[in-house]
């Protein structure tokens, strides 16, 4: 029996091979999100950002027409990752922004952890473009949002058809941590506990027995 040698779908995220891209999480766009409760979505976004910060993963934030109705990037992101934002002048697809794409390329990392508002535009378009150019994109659906569940489901199907890896923020964290004995494992564990109420009980049990 022969086994496939293509590891594209089995190679894991690490703190050394990934970059985080937060795309258009802007106040005006957040208002239209209907596929997730706003409080849960905010919590998921914070969990993803804190995961990247704790693991030392480089992060890139971009916004579109923030002087107009889209509004500024939400503070739940900038309070964690800082306010160095690539402000696009008109490109709907962030990958069409030379500054945004150059920032990704400059990290030297081929795995992009990507989230955006709205999922079917701000996340979908750059994810498709990045995959077409050989990048390995992880679309974090629960740290993204769109108009309703139907739009989310249709977009998820199109992402997977293109080879994008659809995932969640907690799965990203666990994949990066890899081992409870790894560097920053305890800090990452507390990120998970702080943004996942149910898992907080697991963390309390784990550290109580150390």
Automatic annotation (TrEMBL):
Name used for this protein in its record: Isochorismatase family protein
Transmembrane segments: none
Pfam families: Isochorismatase (PF00857)
PANTHER family in the record: HYDROLASE YCAC-RELATED
Residue ranges of domain Isochorismatase-like in the record: 20-170
């Amino acid at each position: 029996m022969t086994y496939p040698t293509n590891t594209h779908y089995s190679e894991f995220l690490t703190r050394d091979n990934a970059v985080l891209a937060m795309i258009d999480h802007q106040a005006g766009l957040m208002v239209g999100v209907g596929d997730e409760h706003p409080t849960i979505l905010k919590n998921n976004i914070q969990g993803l950002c804190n995961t990247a910060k704790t693991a030392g993963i480089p992060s890139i934030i971009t916004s579109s027409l923030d002087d107009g109705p889209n509004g500024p990037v939400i503070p739940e992101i900038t309070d964690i990752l800082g306010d160095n934002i690539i402000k696009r002048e008109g490109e709907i697809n962030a990958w069409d922004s030379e500054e945004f794409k150059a920032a990704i390329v400059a990290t030297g990392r081929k795995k992009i952890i990507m989230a955006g508002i709205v999922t079917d535009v701000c996340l979908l378009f750059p994810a498709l473009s990045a995959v077409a150019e050989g990048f390995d994109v992880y679309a974090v659906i629960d740290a993204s949002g769109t108009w309703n569940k139907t739009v989310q489901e249709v977009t998820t199907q199109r992402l997977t058809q293109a080879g994008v890896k659809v995932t969640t923020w907690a799965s990203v964290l666990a994949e990066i941590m890899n081992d409870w004995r790894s560097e920053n494992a305890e800090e990452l564990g507390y990120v998970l506990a702080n943004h996942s109420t149910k898992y907080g009980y697991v963390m309390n049990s784990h550290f109580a027995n150390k």
